[in-house]
Amino acid sequence: MDKHKILAIIEKELVIALGCTEPVAIALAAATAKSHVNGQIKELCLKASGNIIKNAKSVGIPGMTSYGLDFSAAIGAVAGDPTKQLEVLNGLTIEDEKSALKLIEEGKVISSQADTPKRLYIEVILKTDQQTSRVVISDNHSNISLIEVDGKVVFQGGCENIGIQSDEEELVTLTIDEIYEWVQKVDLSQLTLVKKSIELNRVIGKEGLSGDYGLKVGKTIKENVKKGILSDDIATAAMSLASAGSDARMAGSTIPVMANTGSGNQGIAVTLPVVAVAEKLQVSEEKMIRAVALSHLITIHIKSKFGRLSALCGVTAAGMGASGAIVYLLDGDLQQIKAAIQNTIGNVSGMICDGAKAGCAMKVSTCSNVAVQSALLALNHQEIKSTDGFIHDDVEKSIESFCKLGNEGTRHTDEVILKLMMDK
């Protein structure tokens, strides 16, 4: 593959995001709708796909105490800046929160499930005392595919069922072999976005370790290491730093992160286990950056087939990327990197997604631990065989099987999960 195509993939799939991506996408749609009309808001109607509802229902909003579908739409409409894309909610104030809550209290905000086969779909209809606008986001979190004002189309774009930002032709020939070769040869100066992902995501990891966010998964692991209950090794280091980042993000921290394929939590789970292991091993900065680049690209490769939202937890794919990168940090070869990915696929493939929430930090911790275990087994030439489960001899075929499970094998599961969540 042309080296420039891989750089283009990184540039499209590594995006700075503030707040959990699903409520942020709702806010982006609402902010865009408001930016196209004049007058006072009379009605704000949100329709969203089941997967969006799952992930926006309970997760925190940056700097706010309120949360939920109605609030995500309302805060976007009253205070969001659509020009900032996935940082649309940057700089919110208490007054903004009060204004959004007032809209909800007055009964002006209505949310419901959209009748659509799409897994990622958001539609906002905003009526003021002067005009009406309609905005649709589909297939990825910042893909505005339609804008209407007073029934007239003013913008129509985006691609159907793309599931990922990069062009299909950029991804079609991408393989683990090519990713590994590129990561070893690319000039370090071209990996500025990867370096930025380390810097940004490390900050939120440290914030989670120092503050009291969510379930305090990362902080609790760190405290138990200090007590001598847990050992101070690369596995606990990876689990602690990565889950702490998720603790802070899911609780509504105002610190931005570098997302991977549209997910901030995934961005955290791709980078921080690798960073923690690199720091523990005291490797060079160059080796750490190359390892994180490998983790990002493996995960992008898997997610390009898996899709952005599924009944399966996306952090599992991040764990697969991290496992290969940890092998790289420990001087493993290409075959051992593939073996680590195989081991991770065979371990965490069944982890379901039951929405974005504080408990996501536990899943990040689990996948970080599995990434280390899988890497160590691979370095010892131990790999799940093709006689077991849906694992193949070829890692690319194992990835395809995993993605088929996520796309085709869990559709009914997705419906049941959403029903269980909404029936509480």
Describe the structure.
This protein has 424 residues and is α+β, with helices and mostly antiparallel strands. Helices cover 54% and strands 11% of the residues. It is built from 17 helices and eight strands. The chain has helices at 3-13, 21-35, 50-56, 69-79, 94-105, 168-171, 176-185, 192-210, 217-226, 234-250, 264-281, 285-306, 315-329, 334-348, 360-379, 395-407, 411-422, and strands at 14-17, 41-48, 109-113, 121-128, 132-138, 144-149, 152-156, 257-260. The strands form two sheets. The chain has a six-stranded mixed sheet. It is globular and about 70 Å long. Mean pLDDT is 91; it is low at 158-164.
How would you briefly describe this protein structure?
The chain is α+β, with helices and mostly antiparallel strands and 424 residues long. The protein has helices spanning 3-13, 21-35, 50-56, 69-79, 94-105, 168-171, 176-185, 192-210, 217-226, 234-250, 264-281, 285-306, 315-329, 334-348, 360-379, 395-407, 411-422; strands at residues 14-17, 41-48, 109-113, 121-128, 132-138, 144-149, 152-156, 257-260.
Low-confidence sequence ranges: 158-164
Distance between the termini: 49 Å
Tell me the series of helices and strands, N- to C-terminal.
Answer: HEHEHHHEEEEEHHHHHEHHHHHHH
Mean pLDDT: 91
Features:
single chain, 424 residues, two-stranded antiparallel ribbon
Topology:
Layout: H1 3-13, E1 14-17, H2 21-35, E2 41-48, H3 50-56, H4 69-79, H5 94-105, E3 109-113, E4 121-128, E5 132-138, E6 144-149, E7 152-156, H6 168-171, H7 176-185, H8 192-210, H9 217-226, H10 234-250, E8 257-260, H11 264-281, H12 285-306, H13 315-329, H14 334-348, H15 360-379, H16 395-407, H17 411-422
Parallel strand pairs: 2-3
Antiparallel strand pairs: 1-8, 2-4, 4-5, 5-6, 6-7
